[in-house]
Fold this sequence. Notes:
Layout: H1 3-11, H2 24-34, E1 39-43, E2 54-57, H3 58-74, E3 82-85, H4 91-103, E4 105-108, H5 115-125, E5 129-133, H6 139-151, E6 157-161, E7 172-175, H7 176-181, E8 199-205, E9 213-218, H8 219-230, E10 239-242, H9 249-261, E11 265-268, H10 277-281, H11 283-290, E12 294-297, H12 299-304, E13 319-322, H13 329-339, E14 343-347, E15 357-358, E16 370-372, E17 377-383, E18 389-392, E19 399-404, E20 412-416, E21 419-423, E22 428-429, E23 432-441, E24 446-452, E25 457-459, E26 462-464, H14 466-474, E27 479-489, E28 493-502, H15 510-520, E29 530-533, H16 548-566, E30 570-575, E31 578-584, H17 589-599, E32 605-611
Parallel strand pairs: 1-11, 3-4, 3-5, 5-6, 6-7, 10-11, 10-12, 12-13, 13-14, 28-29, 31-32
Antiparallel strand pairs: 1-2, 8-9, 14-15, 15-16, 16-24, 17-18, 17-19, 19-23, 20-21, 22-23, 23-24, 25-26, 27-28, 30-31
Amino acid sequence: MSAPEELAGLEAVALSDRDLPASTYELIERSAKRHPDKIALHLLPGGTGWREPNSWSYSQLLSRVNKAANLFAALEVPSGGVVALMLPNSGSAYAALWGAQALGIVNPVNPMLAREHLIDIFTLTEAEILLAPAPGVDLLLWQKALDIAAAVPTVRMVLAVGGPPQSVSETATGDFDLLCAEQSGSNLEFEERRTLNEVAAYFHTGGTTGVPKVAAHTHLNEVSLAWSLAQRAEFVDAVVLSGLPLFHVNAVHVTGLAPLSGGGTIVALGPLGYRDRMAVEDFWRIVEHFEVSLFSGVPTVFSSLPEVPAGVDISSLRCGIVGAAPLPARVRLDFESNTGVPMIEGYGLTEATCASVLEPLGGRVPGTTGLRLPYQHVKAVDVDAGGVPIRDCPTGEVGILAIKGPCVFPGYLRRHSQGVRLDSSGSVFDGWLVTGDRGSVDGQGFVSLGGRAKDLIIRGGHNIDPRIVEEVLLQHPDVEAVAVVGRPHAHSGEVPVAYVVLRGHAPRDTDSLLAWARAHAPEPAAAPVFIHEIDELPLTAVGKVFKVPLIRDATRRVVDAELIELGLRGRTVVDGDRVSVHLAEDTADDRADQLRDRLLRYHFECEVRRESRMPDL
């Protein structure tokens, strides 16, 4: 039976007839009743001690979740109240994550976000309890949590994880693990239970520029995704390695609730996850030791993995699931030739819970990202200048992908004149989430991706997908990694430029590489105008390539080139779409005006000013 036929067979039964658990808590509770003694979690201490994990059975996991939920209730968190997590991955983090959802709403965040962003997030979510590493674990992060708590009116307690608080604070503090130990683990000691349509979690999206958006997930979102993933062959009775942080939806759902839904086992790679160099070095030995069935990561995770050592048996591994960023063909080729294990590409976004499209295991259709998951529907649409859908695209035509189904989020948390509420306006139209990602859907329902619409480089009317240029450069044997962005251009609007990481042995000859790239570009307009060598690509906390610093650098280089051509001495500062140029105080008015006139040719806003003290340039 083909993958589309299997999908149709599953959907012959309505989702409402599937007897889904009413909440994420009930999902874990059901699995614990079915498999009480089976291992649910192997908690690795890190890259050096992975042979001696702290392992929890399903009954032990449920007990820890019960204890956390009962603690939050004892601390008078109301039903629907918010518990925020600033934590690395750990057993306590898992217990708090699902314990908070049993009573209210969990708000896991990237603890490395700027203090101001975290204050904005917790103020918006109205977090009441904040969990952070104890000072004996991470003193700086503990102090950061206390500072944030003091600035957020609703936060009334900070709980230390991994040790006692050991500090005086304006905000009440407590020892999470010690307080949990005092609670009952046999059952929930409060009567009200969460239901499918209630909010289970708040996840921030992005957060690397501006104030992060806060997306809400309902229990239906999370339970239905876990159930649909658990129906796939690669998840059946699977041992799933998890190395992404728990503020990332992939870790919570694809390598979290999905295996638990099917009675599988999670191998948590440790507090640092894939950022633990020792764990990555021993990655294949860890796979062998725990007989891992699958793991999931972003493309940079796969490209960083070492070769499989001689004598290491990874025959248990069914596949590697890759998503969250476009998959370069070379990364897939290198991984599959090294391991003999297939990579499965997926597509999704936080606003659709996590995953909406996944390649069938053994049923890959070249050029596509896969088939939609059960009960999720995907189409391509044309949108107007405001992003509103105006028509459905015919089969195979590229448009903006839209998703509909039980995994579409209820909205962003936004502040309005009457208070904070969920708002999906501008994102969801008649139940269809407009993703902002370019793509098409073929006659069998297979989805092809074309990159983010906002990442397009528009060169004199030519729409250039940077992914295509990156794929070309990755074919060159000297190129380890690449990111292509638009550089402002006075005539064409934008032109493509490439930032490359060269392999260790490669000659530092970007001129030859530029000539090669131009010769192999799919069209003249897509040929990069410049190639800049850098030591490493900037990445987000979960390993996605973060292009914003590169875009700013490309803009700065344009302005600096204008300064050099005019013979002016100045300093360029790029902040988002706004540029400021600080000229020496003795710069003549007409020369400053000349620079202003030249910069008006570009699409960015620019302010030219003089300052009395110039740094040495």
